[in-house]
Design brief:
Blueprint lengths: L1 H11 L8 H7 L8 E9 L5 E9 L3 E4 L12 E2 L2 E2 L4 H11 L4 E9 L2 H14 L7 H10 L13 H9 L5 E5 L18
Antiparallel strand pairs: 1-2, 1-6, 2-3, 3-5, 4-5, 6-7
Helix pairs in contact: 4-5
Length: 194
């Protein structure tokens, strides 16, 4: 019985991606933009439901916390759902990967201090790896550990998180649409050279 339980639990385990520190250091990207935190929501264009959340954090370096996500690039090494080296090219690739005829990408951004952004980054680094269907919950937990966001509601639902984030003063929103096929066949299974 115990052996069967162990096998069951092993079958449910998420693969852990843990890039070596040297790769993270080499990929490090520092943006010249002011520090900010941005909530990314993938919204189904047919139903309007939010189906995935991610968090772009621009502090002493810029990363994307993409819990339980499928996006990747060899020049954006991942450690426990945090992708480093999140340059302008990576940001564009991230948006292009997610914006499809079936999904639009909504990015809500709020400028914060460098210390606040770095606190969010530290919380994201401690949060992963995240299991399936827990992307938004893990992001709300990261935000609740970040100064100024301690009252952020815990939720599993991307649209609820998006609505709560929009209530903070100074939030700006960008919406990205694309007519690329929903099955990502246009990407040919390969990340672009950046």
């Amino acid at each position: 019985m115990a052996l069967g339980l162990v096998a069951l639990l092993m079958g449910c385990a998420q693969p852990v991606v843990f890039a070596p520190q040297q790769e993270l250091t080499q990929a490090r990207y520092v943006s010249n933009e002011p520090p900010y935190i941005a909530l990314v929501t993938n919204v189904n264009t047919r139903s309007g439901s939010g189906d995935h959340s991610a968090l772009i954090i621009n502090g002493s370096e810029r990363v994307v916390f993409n819990p339980a996500g499928t996006w990747l690039h060899p020049k954006a090494p991942e450690r426990n759902d945090v992708h480093y080296g999140f340059s302008e090219g990576m940001r564009a690739w991230f948006i292009d990967y997610h914006a499809r005829e079936t999904y639009r990408v909504e990015i809500q951004r709020i400028n914060v201090s460098r210390a606040v952004a770095d606190r969010a980054l530290a919380a994201a680094e401690q949060a992963g790896p995240v299991g399936p269907a827990r992307c938004t919950l893990s992001i709300t937990d990261v935000l609740r550990q970040t100064p100024g966001f301690e009252d952020f509601p815990r939720t599993l639902f991307p649209n609820q998180a998006k609505k709560a984030f929009a209530a903070y003063p100074g939030v700006s929103t960008e919406i990205f649409t694309d007519d690329s096929p929903g099955d990502r066949s246009d990407l040919d299974g390969k990340a672009p050279r950046l």
